[in-house]
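Example 3.
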Amino acid sequence: MPLPAQVAVQEGKFPVTVSFTAGIEKKTKADTGRAARAVRRMLKRLAGRTGLFFTDNKIHIKSKSLETALRIRFKREGRLRLGEDETYSLMVTPEYIQLNAETDIGILRGLETLLQLVRADKEGYYFPAVMIEDRPRFVWRGLLIDSCRHFMPVEVIKRNLEGMAAVKMNVLHWHLTEDQGFRIECKTFPKLHQLGSDGLYYTQNQIRDIIAYAADRGIRVMPEFDIPGHSTSWLVGYPGLGSAPGPYTIEREYGIKDPTFNPTIKATYKFFNKFFKEMSALFIDEYFHIGGDENNGKHWDANPKIQAFKQKHNLKDNHALQAYFNKKILKILTKYKKKMVGWDEIFQPELPNTIVIQSWRGKKALREAAKKGYNSILSNGYYIDLAQPTDFHYLNDPIPEDSNLTPEEKKRILGGEATMWAELISPETIDSRIWPRTAAIAERFWSSAQVNDVDDMYRRLDIISFQLEELGLTHIKNQAMILRRLTNGKDTTALKVLVDVMEPLKLYARHHQGATYTFFSPLTRVVDAALPDAKKARIFRKQAAAFVKGNRTKEAAEVLIKDLKLWKENHQNLQPVIVNSPVLKEIETLSKDLAKIADIGLQAVEYILKGKKPGPGWIEENKKVLQDAKKPRGHAELMVVTAIEQLVNACNGDK
Amino acid sequence: MPLPAQVAVQEGKFPVTVSFTAGIEKKTKADTGRAARAVRRMLKRLAGRTGLFFTDNKIHIKSKSLETALRIRFKREGRLRLGEDETYSLMVTPEYIQLNAETDIGILRGLETLLQLVRADKEGYYFPAVMIEDRPRFVWRGLLIDSCRHFMPVEVIKRNLEGMAAVKMNVLHWHLTEDQGFRIECKTFPKLHQLGSDGLYYTQNQIRDIIAYAADRGIRVMPEFDIPGHSTSWLVGYPGLGSAPGPYTIEREYGIKDPTFNPTIKATYKFFNKFFKEMSALFIDEYFHIGGDENNGKHWDANPKIQAFKQKHNLKDNHALQAYFNKKILKILTKYKKKMVGWDEIFQPELPNTIVIQSWRGKKALREAAKKGYNSILSNGYYIDLAQPTDFHYLNDPIPEDSNLTPEEKKRILGGEATMWAELISPETIDSRIWPRTAAIAERFWSSAQVNDVDDMYRRLDIISFQLEELGLTHIKNQAMILRRLTNGKDTTALKVLVDVMEPLKLYARHHQGATYTFFSPLTRVVDAALPDAKKARIFRKQAAAFVKGNRTKEAAEVLIKDLKLWKENHQNLQPVIVNSPVLKEIETLSKDLAKIADIGLQAVEYILKGKKPGPGWIEENKKVLQDAKKPRGHAELMVVTAIEQLVNACNGDK
């Protein structure tokens, strides 16, 4: 995962033994450093999985033909630029493994494929003989990480870069400034990080380190400086640049805030000129993201000087004023040889089509931009912070079949980005919100549009998910840790049974549950242990639907009954744990409801098996219980209620 | 844990609610920054455990008396120097919590105690009313981390500093140079890190960051530059300073190696003069550790010029030559205002008693040093890399009751250090080798010698262990991850049952199992998932011993029978997993043996319960099986064999 463009399985296998060796054929002047480091990491992961003590750990670099087990050949160093060649071909024979590519970035992609091929039988580990030709469908395959709403330490970024590389993603879109924090050390304007970050920022050395780390994995790092709105933290240190008089303080709550740069004063552009001069040297990628979203214009409307400026310059509304601002910023970025990227809102006819539009509001804007000659990338449908199921993202194609775009226009859709906004995540939980769902999104960006079998995706997702753990990702292991803390070190079995059928509330619903999330709120509750796309619940829903639709055998029923019995009895096991852990109080009735609806489900299955119809009172009464069970508790919800509803309806003969 | 010097439990409790607040009384000019940051972290952990959304997250700093829930008062900033005041007093009343200390370092210690006091009942979370007066027994409470044999990234060091702070340790002894790697960026002699580290070194910025991070937690960072032996990696870049002609390559294997600095040439001291000048500015602690251990002298003996030098200077043996070297180094360190620390071997009468001896070979040396007027610290008995049980370390007192030292001499024993040597650990496993055992060692260093109840220690260790997870430590959660990888994502239940009664081989036995560990060897096998001091096995041994010694009730037997049955049936569950995971092959017979001896144990318990004696053939035959089960497999061993042996012996009437 992602599935390669062409795979031809062959006869035989290449066994992995302690005498496994690796080499790179060096015929050109290309530097083999990045490829060699990648092979070193690959050997480490291979040894880690197989437990083999390789006797030869050298990476052999020779100009002549290699005699190593793994033989690598590439023509030139890949550059970290949009559209760089990432193709590779991989041939596993019983005698050797040949990995070829135009660039060393292609080699990196091929090494990940190779690691996904490791198999085992009684004789030991092996690579199955295979011929693979592979190349990406889209050139822009990104993950946005928001380091602002919650700060994410260097190791969080690094381990997620590893995860990205494992699924062949190639852009880290790093959201570095926000109302809640300015996260970059800035030498020209040090008050930005000194006053705007609570001390939580990346030093320039750390940023350089991360960029190099990403580059070593064939990943570009595009910074986002969100302006003119979303800018409270900038204005704490430089209130004179704001549209309102100030003073400003770091924003602790979330949502759309009023503070905005003043686009009508020269000081603003002088500031950005110097600022982007410094940042252009630090962030080496060609693309700079300037945000541009969700500027509510309130401070502009409230400032008479800004109003006068608009009149004078014939700017009919705030959109026009923002376009004015964007044009000025574009000029600065162009001076420093950067290309401008922004959210939907920057797509205004006044701006040249050298800019790139990132669509968060919908695919319509994406198509429109493409039709008008703009390059664009899709994020709508990939908002992984919204706790939606994997298949929803997976089936969201950047170019749907009915897009009506010409081949030329299609080319302008560069790809897409999953966006990990950070209002409701901490370094402890971020990985479980990114992974494994983002692996499916990565496949959407890399593999053919025809690769869209959801069941097969979920099957492969399970495998890639635990393999991602070897990269240090915490998406699986941190759940058990949070549960231990929630039970105060007591047995977590019953809590796990409950959490397995719960999901965090979707979309923005967690913000509307009577508690205001702030920068300081704990993200350590049951809802934070619950996973988006809870596997157990998903499988139960599927099994229940199949049972209702026709497969009403005893075996099919028994599968359901086993789960339902477990849930029915779970609350009595969880109850004593809740008593000692007040933090669990908020999900007590949810746990009770699970027991109740499981009991209803058991009765329904029995009616169905016996071919008997329950009385109308039974249905009515239980539908009410099921309705109640749907209510969110603890900012989370039960994910098996609809399945049990289906069972209840089926008692009545419904399918 | 560690247990405070004085605790007086009072009536009542202070409830923790959303309106919890914290403040610092600022009456002097002392900077409140460190204390405020510590309170911020404390509030975060408190919110994390309780799930409470505190409404007031400000740290109130006032010169007048505070009205916050938590009220903090200290007189001055603590300096990070040996013997700095760390006392504190903590009073929890139903109305407020008062934490007082001489220094802010005392405040840090008190905040950790406070966090350990959190309790819960049906009404919610609370701090029980209590009066605590606390101070450390020893001034030097250290943990050595070896970043050389395996490199440990910055986050590994940081999370372990958090763990150290949680159990009130105050010295990170950072082992930074070794045969296998030179881990410091050195600007004066860049070939040290460029050629001696495989690119795995800490930049000076990272080192400064870690020192600041430690300082913020009241922890000194003492670097170790191990010379003149253990120095292969230095000599890769500067072979001219070696005692043999060279060239040198980074050592990949472990053990005592020959390469040694040449102590007879001026270039060596010129080098160290410049080197320590740079390092003295980087590492701000007053103490510098120069290692000095395990110099085998082979290269000295083989070098005629060195032999001639010894004769000329009347240095009767290599010890004398090393003392000569140490005196020269001491002079350099003194010039840069650093105090010299070294392992046992540097304790030679020629050196003044300003040096500090770290005893790794035994307590005898420690006492001897103290008697001769030298300060010393104990590490013998705290080698946590050797996989020994917690109680062994816990009962190892730096000043045993029979030490025969005068009070003056006792004072010279500054404390001790747990040593985490890194031959057999990786960033994935290091935490599980340090924690939770080191918490018990920390208690040995902090609490009174009279605090030595092993059962109570183990009870409290369980609690502190899962609490340490909130600091990012991976000692619990990584085991499940390693097991998932070992089973290739299959069910890990059976493997966990086996691992729960296994331990890694103790002392240096893992190096003598027919495989040579190198820098590249995988540390991802079953042995690496197994924990030192396996809890399940420890409890079984205790229960079996109690049963044998007299408590032969049916209930006591049933506890044993339950475990034995589980083990007896476990192999048939594990077998199909092993078939698909060749990496598990090495423990297959261990798993079989567990099933066999569990069956023997079941029979033995039955004989005992029935008061029947088995025939002599039964005993003989089974003793052989038990003998076989003791054999190490996969570099690990079963920890319940002796307990089952006891049961077998008890059938015969033995106790």
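Residues 554-580 of chain B form the longest helix (27 residues). The first strand of chain B starts at residue 6 and ends at 15.
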